[in-house]
Amino acid sequence: MRILTLIRTWASxxxxxxxxxxxxxxxxxxxxxxxxxxxxxxxxALSPIDLIPDFIPVLGWLDDLILxxxxxxxxxxxxxxxxxxxxxxxxxxxxxxVHSRLRGFLAAVAVVLIWLVLCSVAISHGWSxxxx
Length: 132
Fold this sequence. Notes:
Distance between the termini: 55 Å
Helix content: over 70%
Mean pLDDT: 81
Number of helices: 4
Shape: elongated
Low-confidence stretches: none
Number of strands: 0
Number of domains: 1
Order of helices and strands: HHHH
Structural class: mainly alpha
Radius of gyration: 23 Å
Largest sheet: none
């Protein structure tokens, strides 16, 4: 159970770091080589195509477990500290805004689904009473 919590925390931090890298790659004080590495890492992280296909046992997960975190770490280490601080703050705000919108959207979908179910039950009940 504890390992699962650790993995979730690590995955959440990794997702946040990808957003930080994207924002840092757009900052004017970021050197060109860091921008290039950051864009490549973000593109690879979001790409459905892996360097080593996931269907290959054990080796398929190497890029996700070692290569990607290593590249993220390298890009973050090469990013200037002031750019990193600004990008981390912006990423926190962005992620909070996205999560808030997602929660609101999911709540709206749930309400609409409940109404659709209630309406369909009422219609089918009325239909069966009318035909009887």
